[in-house]
């Protein structure tokens, strides 16, 4: 009995609650989750839940991956989700949803950048291990602590580079993530279409593209293997569809649009929002609904 109590304390102490805030129509809580996979560090994780959540009913946790450069190291005490009209999103998806939004806290010597979000690529840490292992344990422990009777944590939705990350998780871990939503993923399958700041993520030292972390490259080669319900959309005015700057990226989109995969819903929206909060705010809930086929 004593040993069980000690082990339970160890498990529960891996996450620390900082504070919770009641917003207009939803609740936001701020956690630090300790991660051995990410360099034995504490990872900031925000939780956003719909108002009036009933632990006696089914709860769906949704992993949310934001774009690059949005982290607490830049003084961001919030997430993209704070700006995406969550009340309307919760109304569309139902009232038993909790978004799980991790952020980064890291200094990258190679690019001299702080807090960039490299779970999509390589930097010596294992974001895959964190997302498919430690974060799953955090949600499980949290559910037990909250008295949530039944829950699922098999959904991921991402925006911009986070959308690329969502597709990467769907490609590599279909057993974990069975519902994928990708808003405005940017495909840069060749080095010539990448900014220099992305070289350390997507390229080998010799300049060749690292195939397994580049979803655009896999799409061009018909190797992007999405076995779960996946919804991908982008505004037709998004810079990622610029045929002059990103011709190979556009070809990657063409491959996806012509896919015969019944589980794949790919579209270029006539929405004129571009690569902006306007487009994402209006489409976050829609993408979730489609990926879950409510």
Beta-strand content estimate: 15-25%
Spans of 5+ residues with little confidence (pLDDT < 50)? 1-13
Q: Percentage of helical residues?
A: 25-40%
Give average pLDDT, whole number: 85
User: What's the SSE pattern?
Assistant: HEEEEHEEEHEHEHHEHEH
Give, in spatial order, the strands making up the sheet with the most strands. 1-2-3-5-4-8-9-10-11
Indicate the overall shape: globular
| Main sheet record | 9 strands, mixed
User: How many beta-strand runs?
Assistant: 11
Specify the CATH class.
Answer: Alpha Beta
CATH architectural grouping: 3-Layer(aba) Sandwich
Keywords:
294 residues, alpha/beta, Rossmann fold, 9-stranded mixed sheet, 11 strands
Can you tell me about this structure?
By secondary structure, this protein is α/β, with parallel strands linked by helices. Strand 8 (151-159), helix 4 (161-172) and strand 9 form a beta-alpha-beta unit. The strands form 2 sheets. Strands 1-2-3-5-4-8-9-10-11 form a 9-stranded mixed sheet, with helices on both faces. Strands 6-7 form a two-stranded antiparallel sheet. The protein has helices at 2-12, 86-93, 127-146, 161-172, 199-202, 215-220, 247-257, 277-292, and strands at 15-22, 26-35, 41-50, 59-65, 97-102, 107-108, 113-114, 151-159, 179-183, 229-235, 264-269. The chain has a single domain (2-292), classed as 3-Layer(aba) Sandwich (Rossmann fold), CATH 3.40.50.
């Amino acid at each position: 009995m004593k040993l069980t109590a000690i082990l339970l304390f160890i498990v529960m102490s891996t996450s620390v609650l900082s504070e919770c805030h009641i917003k207009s129509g939803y609740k936001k809580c701020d956690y630090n989750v300790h991660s051995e996979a990410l360099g034995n560090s504490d990872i900031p994780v925000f939780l956003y839940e719909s108002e009036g959540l009933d632990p006696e009913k089914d709860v769906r946790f949704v992993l949310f991956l934001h774009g690059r450069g949005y982290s607490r190291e830049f003084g961001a005490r919030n997430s993209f989700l704070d700006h995406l009209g969550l009340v309307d999103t919760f109304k569309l998806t139902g009232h038993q949803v909790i978004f799980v939004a991790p952020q980064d806290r890291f200094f990258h010597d190679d690019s001299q950048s702080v807090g960039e979000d490299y779970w999509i690529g390589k930097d010596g840490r294992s974001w895959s291990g964190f997302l498919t292992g430690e974060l799953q344990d955090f949600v499980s422990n949290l559910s037990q602590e909250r008295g949530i009777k039944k829950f699922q944590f098999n959904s991921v939705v991402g925006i911009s580079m986070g959308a690329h990350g969502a597709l990467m998780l769907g490609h590599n871990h279909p057993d974990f993530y069975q519902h994928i939503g990708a808003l405005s993923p940017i495909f840069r399958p060749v080095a010539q279409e990448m900014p220099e700041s992305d070289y350390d993520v997507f390229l080998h030292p010799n300049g060749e593209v690292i195939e397994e972390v580049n979803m655009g490259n896999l799409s061009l080669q018909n190797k992007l293997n999405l076995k779960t319900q996946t919804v991908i959309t982008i505004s037709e005015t998004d810079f990622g569809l610029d045929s002059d700057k990103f011709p190979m990226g556009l070809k990657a989109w063409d491959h996806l649009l012509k896919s015969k995969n019944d589980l794949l819903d790919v579209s270029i929206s006539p929405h004129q929002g571009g690569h902006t909060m306007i487009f994402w705010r209006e489409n976050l809930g829609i993408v979730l609904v489609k990926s879950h086929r409510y």
